Amino acid sequence: MQTTLSRPIDFHGLGLHSGKPVNMRIRPAPADTGVVFVRTDVTSKNNKIPARIENVSSTVLCTRVANEDGVSVGTIEHVLAGLTACGIHNAYIDVDQDESPALDGSALPLVQQILEVGLQELPQPLRTIKVLKPVRVESPDGVSATLEPSIRTEMSFAIDFPEPIGSQQQSLDLSNGAIVRNLAFCRTFVLKPMIEELQKNGFGLGGNEANVIIADVENKQFICQLRERDEACRHKMLDAVGDLTLAGHPIIGKFTGLRSGHRTTISLIRKLLADKTAHQMIVANEETAATLPGAGTKRHDIPNI
User: Fold this and answer.
1) Catalytically active residues, by annotation
2) Domain spans of the chain?
3) Which of 1, 62, 179, 262 is buried deepest, with most CB atoms within 10 A?
4) SS3 string of 168-199?
5) Could you give the C-alpha distances from 251 to 113, 139, 180, 187, in angstroms and in order?
6) What angle separates helix 77-85 from helix 108-117, to the nearest 10 degrees?
7) What dihedral angle (degrees, nearest 10) is formed by the CA atoms of 97, 59, 249, 83?
8) pLDDT 10s per residue in the chain (305 long)?
C-alpha cells in the first residue's frame, strides 16, 4: 500500500545556497499524488511543482525542479531522501522561498519529525520500477553511475577527494530502516578552498559550521566533529537516494556511483526510463513492499549521534 504523513510537520531554517530564511511545511497527500512542492510565496502563477524527473531544471550543486511557468525550487534532494528513508510515497511540501531549508545539512531533522508523527497507510496499491538489465552513464573523466537488476534496493558508492576526505567507499542494502540507520544523519560537505568561489557565484550563502562539514585541505583536517568516519561518502549516497526518488516510484535494483553527483544520477534515471527493455513497472506484492526502503522504519532506527 501507499503511504503519506499522518499530519503536517513544520520546519524553519536558512536556505543552504540563498542564505534566506525558509519556512517549510510537509503535509499529507492523497494516493498517487507523489511528492509535490508548493511555492506559497507565488500567487500569480502555477505554484505547484511535482518532484518528477521530467521537471528537473538544474543539477548545479543541488537538484532543482521547475514547472511549466518557470516556478522552481532547489536543494530538494535531502527532503526527498528523508521521505524515502521513512517510506513516504505521497506528500505536499510547502515552501516560501525557491529553496528548502538546509537544517543541519542532512535529512536527520526530517526523519526525526516524520517518525514522530507517524505514517498513514492508503488503500491504493504501490507501483515500483524493477530494473531488468544494466543501464550506465559515464563521462570522459571516469565519473559513472549504473543501475542493474537486484531483488532489493541496493547502493554502492565510491568517492575520491583531497585529504582529509580522501578515497572512501560504502555499500548498503537500503531495505527497511537502513537509510535512517546509516545515511540520513550524514551532512553535506565542502572543501575549504572552494567556499569563497562558491559564494562569489551565489552559492553556499547559508552554509556555516552548523550545517556543512568543512574540509580544511591545507591542514588535512575537518572543522567539526564527524558523525561517521566516511560521512562524506555516506552523504553522497543520501543525495543519490533523494535524486532517485524523482523516478516517481521506488526503484528495485542496485545503484552504483563512482564519483558521481546530481547530474550523473539524473541522467541515469532518464536513460533507464527511456529504455522500455531496461525496466518494468510492477505492483508491489506484500513481500516486495515489506523490503522497500523505509518500510517498517521506526523511531528506534534513528542512531544516537
Assistant:
1) 262
2) 2-122, 127-296
3) 179
4) EEEEEECCECHHHHHCCCCCCEEEHHHHHHHH
5) 25, 23, 18, 24
6) 40
7) -50
8) 999 999 999 999 999 988 899 999 999 999 999 999 999 999 999 999 999 999 999 999 999 999 999 999 999 999 999 999 999 999 999 999 999 999 999 999 999 999 999 999 999 999 999 999 999 999 999 999 999 999 999 999 999 999 999 999 999 999 999 999 999 999 999 998 888 888 888 877 888 888 899 999 999 999 989 999 999 999 999 999 999 999 999 999 999 999 999 999 999 999 999 999 999 999 999 999 999 999 999 999 999 88
β 213-216/254-258 pair status: unpaired
| CATH homologous superfamily of 2-122 | lpxc deacetylase, domain 1 (3.30.230.20)
CA 226 to chain centre: 20
Residue that has been written with the C-alpha cell 538546509 in this structure: 102
CA 64 to each of CA 41, 80, 103, 198: distance values in angstroms, whole numbers, following the listed order: 17, 12, 18, 17
Give the CA distances from residue 138 to residues 3, 71, 84, 141, 169, in Å, rounded to whole numbers and listed in that order.
35, 31, 26, 8, 18
Domain 127-296 of CATH type 3.30.1700.10: yes
Distance CA(89)–CA(35), nearest Å, equals: 7
Is residue 294 within 8 Å of 84, Cβ to Cβ?
Answer: yes
By residue count, the chain amounts to 305
For residue 246, give every residue at least 6 positions away whose Cβ sits within 8 Å of its Cβ, in sequence order, or none: 51, 52, 53, 56, 63, 65, 80, 266, 269
Distance CA 67, CA 73 (A): 9
